[in-house]
Task: structure prediction
Amino acid sequence: MSEGAHLRQPETGQPDASHKAILYLEGLNVSFDGFKAINDLTLYIDSGELRCIIGPNGAGKTTMMDIITGKTRPNSGQAWFGQTVDLLKLSEPEIANAGIGRKFQKPTVFESHSVAENLELAMHGNKSVWYSLRARLSGEQQALIDETLQTIGLTENYHQQAGALSHGQKQWLEIGMLLVQKPHLLLVDEPVAGMTHQEMERTAELLTSLAGKHSVVVVEHDMDFVRSIANKVTVLHQGSVLAEGTMDEVQNDQRVIEVYLGE
Amino acid sequence: MFITRILQNDRGGQIMLAVLALVLVLVPVLNLLVPEGSFLHMPTYLVTLLGKYLTYALLAVAVDLVWGYLGILSLGHGAFFALGGYAMGMYLMRQIGDRGVYGNANLPDFMVFLNWKELPWFWQGFDMFWFAMLMVLLVPGLLAFVFGWLAFRSRVTGVYLSIITQALTYALLLAFFRNEMGFGGNNGLTDFKDILGFSLQADGTRVTLFALSGLALAGGYLLCRYIINSKLGRIVVAIRDAESRTRFVGYRVEHYKVWVFTVSAMLAGIAGALYVPQVGIINPGEFSPLNSIEIVIWVAIGGRATLYGAVLGAILVNYAKTVFTGLMPESWIFMLGALFVLVTLYLPQGLAGLVQQFQAKGWLQRRAAA
Amino acid sequence: MLKTTDFTRLLLLSVLLWLCPPLQAEQQSATLTQAAPLFQEASFDKTREAVDLLAASGDPEVVPYLQALLDGKLYQDKAQGTLVIAKDGNTGDELRKIPTNNSLRKYLRGAVGQLSLSHPDAAVRLKSANGLLETVTPEMATQLRGLLEKETDSAVKEALSLGLAMADLNAADKAVRLTAIESLAGNLHPGVRNRLTTMTTDSDAEVAKAAQEALRSIEDTAALYGHVETLFFGLSLGSVLVLAAIGLAITFGVMGVINMAHGELIMLGAYTTYIVQQLMPNFIDYSLFVAVPAAFIVSGAMGILIERTVIRHLYGRPLETLLATFGISLILQQLVRTVISPQNVPVSNPSWMSGSLEINSVLSLTYNRLYIVLFCLMVFALLYFVLRKTNLGLQVRAVSQNRAMARAMGVRSARVDALTFGLGSGIAGVAGVALSQLTNVGPNLGQAYIIDSFMVVVFGGVGNLWGTLVAGLSLGVVNKVLEPWAGAVLAKILVLVFIILFIQKRPRGLFPQKGRAAGD
Result:
């Protein structure tokens, strides 16, 4: 429960990515009841990079996200955010406040709140109890909400209950919530599931535009989508990295073809 | 104005508070100013009965805050109510002074009976009204804080939490039954004489207590509504709907839960403190798990997550209880049992939900006609 | 008490009225005829001689006469000199009571004991050996040693050696005394303890010290058996908890249904026992064998009814289920109050349930507790078998793990739900039969167990039958260990608080279900 220095990080600035990488995962192991979900996983994400992670079901993609965001604790290994933030010591909200945002595989928004309220709740800023009791939206925050609604194309739905949105719209809203959170690292789990082709293109556009300012990790099954956005792809298999490289390199990797792309 | 802003979108609350205000004016007039024997005179026992309902209503509002909005089904809120009641009871006990059966100015009767020589440390200070009132808030609040801190930090949720809140009140029930605890054991605290120098039997005192209960209900209601309307309220609802998501957005869920749980326990404590001088007794029976679970059914019947529904439910169910236990005592338990089953099966939104449904229909019809 | 005195009065009255013949007319053996004149002398010394004469005969037939003399019931016909045993202390004028004094009675006791020791029945021998323990004189000792050599029954042997050792404590020879003390160490016979306590002040320091040590070892042994007894009490309480909780372990643990009416299903089982006993008042001993299946059916049927009418509509809404089933519990309680009685009803224990199994003089296990433990283990084993080895068990586990998948595989999930709930409820009824033998049977019986049952299931780890068994038994033991110094109520409170804190630390209980599915 100690409010360590890492907590203050998000408001004060960037995580220390002085050695190029923003996320370090080293020698991670997780097992559930004897089943090794993550097996000696080592992975680095560079600052400002857009990385796609692919792999068959059960390859450990979601578990990896769970470790980064503090939902699951590894049995062994290291996970650092920049040079200074030890992710394994922080709780979920602390990690979120340190600047890691996550979009879930199944879109989860606050269903009984309006679209705008969803963004208000997700917005970066002071998240203490007493503060929130008296908090009012500042003009700046209002502007951010309007701007984000524009980006995700939900301006029309400002007052609509989030639970009443379509599946695709919920996906967008969740991306919007990620945006107002202003994270340094975005973890995006299957962003285009249930989207039309058109929506998919817009998502691709959005994610590419985010890279550079932010670091983005995308887990996706849709190969066309991955090809359209990725410059670097990591293939996970049985809990560890099988191959890494450009889409072309990965696609021509014999082992990858065997386990995954052999279709 | 502040109050109108709080009640902006709360039609039910506006109506409820208006009715409450009317009752708060009418009842004292009918009791004190209309002469006895007149058709319009309201007997004092009725005033007290209404006052009791109002404290139950406040208790129901407290439960609705945690159940309706935070999603925590507390089966132990009766414990906070009883603790507040005991704190008040201890003050009233001390006020008896040497007018007890044994005439001991320093010790309540039951302590003399148990051959105790001096006042235990935890009774110190309860002869002062302000101290007792502080304890009415602090004791339930502290218990809720510690319990909540332990439970929410280790993420005990759902049914598990309900069961351990029930175990909490059950443990307290057993504890307060013990004479050694120093709270009068089985018999509890009773035989109160006066409060702040006013006789508890006097009509004026009774009406004042009734009015205070009404004001406490109004105040508690507005406080809860204020909390719900704030950003904190929206976070609380977010926790109810998607706890884990709220964490990933950066909120420390356990802090919010503990905060709301503690506020709710304090409101329950105030309700208990107002209840005791009106009914004239507090005993361990108030800790019984049955009592706590009954509160939940008031809220369920009224309609959870509406606040005014809780008030409505508490008053209706208790009125029914008074009527039926008087007319046919055997049938009441059957009815209460049936209420639990029928409301959960057929009326998940409670009466408030029913009203909203009708309103929505009417609105649609009017629109169709236009 | 009053009744007993009335009864005695009545008896006396009838005796006075009829003066029934008190005589026991039968052929008397030669030894008795020989001893009869000595009794007539009316001197204690001569009486003693007569006793010696009788005792020396070794004839088991004389034992009743010596016993009668000892009990003050031996009379002599004034005229003919024949010895007569009076049956009810009422005699005519022609009989004279043979007087005894303290020392003679003591002497008699030894003589009777010695004679009984050669009785052909081992049980009689054992009884007399035990009676002799503290009265063995040096003279008797020699004789006892002879008997010991011939003795074949091990229990009698043990009793005889104990008596000899006790006699040796009086020996003049220090070495004999020390050996005797040593052989008595750890012996739990109350006489031994008393005797050794007096010996701690023996003039010989070495003997006194040895006696002290022997006493300590006796106390240690007694303490050990005390712990065994606490453990046994704890296990029997734990068995009650397990019985009450095990049905819940199925409905809550396997199906995830919060059934607050579980306690009332237990209560129905207890009432079924009551009704069964009312129907067969002359066969109380067999009533439980009827009550167990009957209670299973009654509570099981009620469970299925509840599942079909209410719970079915609330799957996936645990908090609503909790409220609805609580309502059902109120209705069931009130139903029993209205239909049967608001008061407790009497349920009798079969004769085979009363009494106790005596392990030794400090430890005896009452049969009702013993049977509860055995019954609990039987029910557990049966349930485990049903869930693990039968087709129904397989389907239950399949539905509880993945309802949609199970349905896709052709499992009729609605039927399985009803049957599972019926099974859990039926077990609750069976628990009720067991509880009816231990506590008062009343409308509130179930309420007292519902919180405990939930605690046991949650403490053990939801969905784990073994967890429920271990949790129930250990909570029972902890409760009984705490009781002596905390009192029953405080012990219970402490256990509750402990569980509340434990759940905070390990929300998934002692034996959590593992795996990804267990997460949220």
In short: The two ends of chain B are 35 Å apart (CA to CA). Chain B has a mean pLDDT of 92. The first strand of chain B starts at residue 189 and ends at 190.
